# Entry
Amino acid sequence: MNSPFIYSPLTTKKIRQYFLLSLLPLIFYNIYVKGNLGFYLLVFVLGLLTSLVFIYMYTYFTNYTWKDLKEYIDPLTTTLFFLILYPKSFPCFAICFMMGIYILFSLLAFKYRLVKWSSFYLALSLSFLLFYHLGFSLNRLFISNGTSIFSVLSFYVLPCLIGFIFLILTKSIKWKISVIPIFTLLFISVMMFFFHSGSIFGRFYKMISSPILFYLCFLNNHKDTPVSGVGCLIYGMVLGMLLFVFNAQNSILRLSYIFVFYPITTPLFDYIGSSERPAIQKAIVPILLFLIIVIALVR
Amino acid sequence: MIGIKVEKKKQYQDTITTIPCPKKITIPYSKDSIIKVKVKDTVKTGTVLGICNELPIISSVSGVVTKIKPNIQIDVTIDKFEKIKHDSLIDALKKASIYGLSGSFKPTYLKYNQPAKTLIVNMMECEPYVMADYATTINYIKEIKEMLIYLLNNHPFEEVIIAYPNNQRNLRETLTTSFEDNENIRLVSLPTLYPLGWEKLLVRAIKHVDYQENPIEVGCIVSNVSTIYAMYKAYFLNIPLYERVITVVNEDDKYNVLIRNGMKVKDILSYLKISYNDKKIVLGGLMMGREVTPNTVVTLKENSIFCIDDVKQEESSCIRCGKCVNTCPVKLSPVLIKEQINSSRLTRLHPEKCIECSICSYICPSRIPLKQIVLTAKKKVNEHE
# Structure
């Protein structure tokens, strides 16, 4: 057997455990603030069924001959699935499911056979508890008249940051992917200050609303992000700009599509970030697809 | 990125235990060697047994030659020494068969044949748990100092830089006390990161320059501290290189032992009363070494023997965390190489630059054997070229 004979203590199994632990402050805070166990159960059962179908689809598609497809299959199938399943559902519910399935998929995709069923159920139930409330908050944030924005923000920012800091300390996530978009949004807020009156921090605070913060801290650290430092940097900056554009439009649905579809641009940032430049061909199709989506959303 | 911290806190021991000669010694040699001794010849410690790449193959024991092929086998008798005769340092390095003891095992005289302004003495010993260089420095500091002063006075070196790990107070005190009166010998402490002992990173960390093939391009010669001690013995004492200090680790027990070329792993472990049954034996370090059997012959190229528990690592799929890309000392992208392994675009990722330090496999949370994948890619690219 060849070297090495020692390994870093951090494993995917540990990352998964840390990820679940990092969600605990949010989960407990949500249960404390609003409790509705009957609905959780419904969401749990629906989520479980959806996830099982989803895993089946994933397995089916990963055996597909065009191997590159599997890298983009999870965001694509998630969205397609929800378009079929919930065509008329209200946005928050759809978003809640999209995100829930998405994060669960990422957790499972680490290695399906390594995931013990107990941790699978735990991840599932915890995630859906969380995502229901997240969806509810999104609804309040973007669809209500805005009076409750700050109260909702205060519910989520602190527990979200606690979980995020925990993940950084345990080196479980790529911090650049989360921090760079936040700084991009802050930069845009500062720039906006020069063109429009108003407080910089007021604008920034509004822009970096808790669901976006949640997305940046937890969801955006999944497996479909660039691998190199430079790739992460540019990926984060572009993401920050996109979040600003769609956040400014006040459309949670459009924002959610960015959440879901943005990872398909990863090969481009891998191409830019790699010093040796692997293959641009691989990046062209997803980039074109993403551009079409963005243009369609803006229009 | 100049490396990662593999061992939380390195524990050092400066005692050196001499392993007595076993009854038989096996001295391996390469196919292109010319063997000068015959079966039943009597040899002394230091006798030239043959020639390999213009350097002599030195007998590490006294005794009777019993076998020539595939390796030279000697039945050991009472120690008698044969010293070398030389007329210069280069001559001494050739006749004493001095090789770089840091792992490269290249003939040392080739380095000192070239004009260089800076001599960097490598004491970094970045392989985790290995402390043979440390023990050599602590025990033979006077000899090492004498050799360095000789090199400063008789070679065109403007300065000597001693690079040592910053977590060892004892070593720092020893070095400071020994070299405080020498203006041209500078001490540089560096973080204990892996693979900072690799000469390319060492030169970058000290001189802030990069080179392509050899440190001489930027006016530097890098020598391991054990090599400097071997040079001292060759030049001042006329003793050829036939023994060295290595580290032996078995769980919490750590030893520095003086071994002779050609001893078997089991000879060393048995003397130290280490039980190696049901354990994996690793020769050459946990990061860059290889698994061996108890009957494997230990040559002077090796710096350590480890007895470790056999723990299997289960591989899972890549989560694209990018840790392998961010830690690679030669800035390769192992994860991208893995993705492009069967592609014609593999050459653009330059897997041939890999130095086989194993950081990518070590750091990967999915336990993907990235080093093996990159080596496969390296082989493919080399064959293609």
User: Anything to note?
Assistant: Residues 323-384 of chain B form one domain. Chain B touches chain A through 49 residues (CB under 8 Å).
